[in-house]
Every structure is written in C-alpha cells, then in structure tokens.
Amino acid sequence: MERAPDLKNPLKGATSRPQRISIIIIILFHAVGLIGCSLPATDILFLKLVPWHLLLMTVIIIYNHDQLRGRFFVFGLLIFVIAFVAELIGVHTGWLFGNYAYGETLGTQLFRVPLMIGVNWFLLTYSTGVLLQRSRIKSRIIRILVGALILVLLDASIEPMAMHFDYWHWTDNHIPLKNYVCWFGLSALLLFVFDQFKFKPQSKVASVLLIMQFIFFMGLELLN
Q1: Which residue(s) pair with 102 in the sheet?
Q2: Which of 30, 70, 69, 68 is nearest to 203 (CA)?
Q3: Residue 209 in contact with residue 158, Cβ under 8 Å?
Q4: Sign of dihedral through CA atoms 153, 155, 156, 161?
Q5: 129, exposed or middle or buried, with CB in 10 Å at 0-12, 13-18, 19+?
Q6: Per DSSP, which regions of the chain are E strands?
Q7: Distance of alpha carbon 69 from alpha carbon 61, whole angstroms
Q8: Does residue 9 or residue 216 have the better pLDDT?
Q9: In percent, how much of the chain has pLDDT > 70?
Q10: Weakest-pLDDT range from 51-55, 98-102, 160-164
Q11: CA distance 96 to 182
C-alpha cells in the first residue's frame, strides 16, 4: 500500500497520490451530500444513502492508515463496542445523554440503536485523534480534553439538523445539557483509548474528514 514518502515529517501535507485522491473523494461526497440533502427533490434519496456514506468514509480511513495491522482493527472494534454500549444505555435508560430515540436515517438497528452509530464514533474518534497528533500539544491529558471539546462542538453543529433529518429525536424536542456533558465524557474516554494504542503520526486524510463533518452540518443548517 503506497504511503507518503516523507514519513519523518508527519506534519507535512499528504503527498502520495492515493492520499490526494482520498481527500478529493471526502470533499466531493460531502459537498454532493450537502446539496442533495438540501434539495426537496433529492433529500429523501440522499438520506437513505447516509449509512453507505459512513461505510465509504470508513473504507477510506482504513485504507489510509499507515502500518495497517491487527491492532488497528482491535482499536476499531473496541471503539465500536464502547460507543454502542453507551448508546444502548442512553436509549434504554436515559442515564447517558438524556431521553432520545433514533430515527431511520442511520439504517439498521440492534436493540433500537443503529449499528452505524458505532461506526460513526469510530470515525470521529480516529479523525480527532489524528488531528491532535498533528498538533503541537505535548500533554496527553490536554490533547484528550481538547479533542473531547472539539467533538462536543461538532455535536452542537449536528443537533439542530438531527431531528430535522430523522437521525434521532429528543423528548419534547429539548436537547438537555446532559447530552453535551456525556458527549464530552464519552469522547474523552474514546480518545484515551486512541492514545493508548500509540499509532504513529498519520496523514491529513482523517483530519480532512473531521473538518468536512463540521462544514457539512453547518452548511445544512444554513441551507435548511
């Protein structure tokens, strides 16, 4: 698998052709998705494609991970399981996040929780972890806390559109403060797991995905 030639300088831009193509795909699919979800004539179709979009982004992330070994898949599975269990607790008890229920947009559900939500948490955790690898923050604790704050900010940009597009729904359409507190706590836990695996610095592909998530949901709010 081709990788960036300058591995001694992980802060340098993505230089390999596969990385450039991956970045183009990420930007293109988010841009097309933003337009498609914002047009009344196509929004239903594009919402049905959301699970497939998440799977495509997962394939891109896996392909671009340098030194793809078994421990990477162990990491992915661990993130999926922790996040899925947290969502199970949240949906069925309200102890985490608050009182909410998932709609149909995220696809197939197990015990009323979409399987894609675990995949999404993997994408968010990995992308944020890689972004912070590329930062100048040396302290592990500060990196984790900053990363958790970034993901809370992302959730804040998602929430206005989540109910509109049937991602999930809150009781009385009220988003409790507990949701953001729990997002911060779960994000910090998952980023701690990421840090424990000590992956070597990765290319900017995952960071671009995280940035496009912000742009996508903020764009949806402006256009809807």
Answers
A1: 168
A2: 68
A3: no
A4: positive
A5: buried
A6: 100-102, 109-110, 113-114, 168-170
A7: 14
A8: 216
A9: 93
A10: 160-164
A11: 6
Separation between Cα atoms, residue 87 and residue 113, nearest integer Å: 7
Query: Tokens representing 154?
Result: 């992302």
Q: Where are the domains of the chain?
A: 17-223
- Give the integer Cα–Cα distance in Å for 163 and 137: 35
Confidence bin at 173 (pLDDT 50/70/90): confident
Rounded CA gap, 164 and 187, in Å?
24
- Chain-centroid distance, C-alpha 140: 21
Tell me how far CA of residue 143 lies from CA of 8, 42, 88, 105, 146, in angstroms.
22, 40, 27, 32, 5
How many Å from the N-terminal Cα to the C-terminal Cα in the chain? 41
- Environment class of 115 (CB within 10 Å of its CB; exposed 0-12, middle 13-18, buried 19+): middle
73: which 2 tokens?
Answer: 């898949």
